[in-house]
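Re: the 154-residue chain
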Amino acid sequence: MSKLTNPTQWSTYALTALRIVAGFLLSLHGLTLIFGLFATPGHPSKPPVAFTLLWFAGILQLVGGPLLILGLFTRPAAFILSGHLAFAYFLAHAPKGFWPNLNGGELAALYSFVFLYLAAVPQRAFSLDSLIARVGQKSFAVPAAGGSNIEVNA
């Protein structure tokens, strides 16, 4: 049975797809905030003033999204993004009402919990984190003086 047809592997691939898609969609939000790309009537088309809360939100999204897509520093990046979106929900949406579907905060709440989940679960497939971990576990021989080899664990 190949890895693709093994049902026990499907959750790994679904988690990878969730991480990549969530990172891509968050990157689009960052591009809209910082550069005004993909602006819609509900989003500002001009960039925010530097070093304001909205500017920092855009920077977090613009940097965190690609980190998630690549699977690099996934857990700390996802944890920071989860806190960022929870903060955004309570700062911008919760004052407008209790229910997320009425205060416009569905995406912020959903992203916050998706990123909290990604921070809690190790990434096993298609991530630079797992590649770095695998490379770090291998050992190799280094030639030493006198023709002998020294075993080195990387």
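The helical segments are 7-35, 53-70, 74-93, 100-103, 106-120, 128-137.
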